[in-house]
Amino acid sequence: MASLGNDLATLRKERELSVQDVYDITKIPIYIIQSIEDDSIFKQIDENTTYVRNYVRSYSRALGIEEAKIVKALNQIQEENYQGGLIETEQQTDSADSSTQEEKGPEAEQASSEAKDSNSSAINGNNSVQTRHLSKNEWEWVNVGRREPKPAAEKTSSKTQFAALIILILILTGAGLYFYFKYHQGVNTPSNTTHHPAMTSNRPQQHPAGADTTDTLRNRQITKSLPDTLQISIYAVRGKLNPVRVYTDINKKFTPYWVPKGDSLHLRFVDSVQIQAIDQYNLMQLIFYGHTIKNYQQKYYDKKSNMVRLNRAVFEKHPEWYPPANK
Q1: 27-34: long-range contacts at Cβ-Cβ below 8 A with a sequence spacing of 24 or more?
Q2: Pairwise CA distance, residues 112 & 293, whole Å
Q3: Distance in angstroms (rounded) separating the CA atoms of residues 218 and 206
Q4: Please, which of 79, 203, 285, 295 could form a disulfide with 235 given CB 3.0 to 4.6 Å?
């Protein structure tokens, strides 16, 4: 079965070029050159037609194959009708070139020899000197990754665009920082966050038995039912919370909060609240209308979601936790 890749490899060897030489000329990765010569690249020609055809055309230009011949061969490959013949046509072209060279005489032969020697030295290590002038198409595909010198006006335009991009990035960064700090200041405003002094100063004073506690309980009127909107506080008693994530049925999304040590975060909800503070539960207390919820992690921690889940039913079981009635 005719093989375009095998024909190209044969022509490369006839021209005494190695795979590395083709890479040096075209900058096509070596593994792609190998896939061309073993025909594996043509399995993708229907899916990546443009890339495959351009790689093969660039390869063939490095061998000096005429554009029309390789395009014809690629068309036959796509039609699954490649019958070979590329080697024969190239050999005929080479023979014709040799006959023309002989007719031109010794001077033309010497010039051709010098040109070959110059190209050979460029391939074998003197890559800093290019003796072969490339066409526009060859420049686009043979010298992949290289750029033509830009006119001064184009360079100025590029600098202007780059400067505009930098300014835009700075503006967006400044705006992002502004809204970030504004958001967190809003979270920690006096209405939401309360600073607590040292924990010892928040402990209730000890009273003699029967002194003021009876009067306090007698004077305090407890509501008979919970209000429609409830409030729970997260008190960072032993360290800063970085962050604690909270979901309430009012916000209906998880929101991160950074709570400094000694501050409280007040959260409002209707029926349920979920608190996630991975490896930080020992640093905080949960307070419901002034009542510390003891052992909340043991009682209400959900291992599957790794968070504390509380709902209205929990608080309805403790009438002593109800907020004081408004007078």
Answers
A1: 27/142, 27/143, 27/144, 27/145, 27/146, 28/55, 28/58, 28/59, 28/144, 33/59
A2: 96
A3: 18
A4: 285
Q: Which residue has the tokens 């930080």?
A: 280
DSSP assignment of 150-168: PPHHHHHHHHHHHHHHHHH
The tokens describing 53, both together, are 């055809």
Residue with tokens 């060859």: 138
* Average pLDDT along the chain: 76
Distance CA 262, CA 238 (A): 8
Beta-carbon contacts of residue 61 (< 8 Å; ≥ 6 apart) = 26, 67, 138, 141, 142
How far apart are the two ends of the chain, measured CA to CA in Å? 100
pLDDT band at residue 97 using 50, 70 and 90 as cut-offs: low
Distance from C-alpha of 309 to C-alpha of 289, rounded to nearest angstrom: 18
Q: What is the DSSP letter of 320?
A: G
Q: Are strands 254-259 and 241-248 parallel, antiparallel or unpaired?
A: antiparallel
* Residue 46 pLDDT grade (very low, low, confident, very high; cuts 50, 70, 90): confident
3-state secondary structure of 292: strand
pTM score over 0.85: no
Range of lowest pLDDT (79-93, 120-134, 267-281) = 120-134
Closest C-alpha to 33, from 60, 3, 68, 2 = 60
Q: Which of 38, 32, 87, 43 shows the shortest CA–CA distance to 65?
A: 87
Q: Please return the burial class of 266, using the count of CB atoms within 10 Å of its CB with bins 0-12, 13-18 and 19+.
A: middle
The H or E element that residue 112 is part of is helix 106-123
How many CB atoms are located within 10 Å of the residue 143 CB?
16
DSSP, collapsed to helix, strand or coil, labels residue 195 as strand
Q: What's the Cα-to-Cα distance from 213 to each of 204, 208, 216, 235, 326, rounded to whole Å? A: 11, 9, 5, 25, 21
**Amino acid letter, residue 325:** A
Determine the distance from the C-alpha atom of residue 139 to the mean position of all C-alpha atoms in its chain, rounded to a whole number: 32
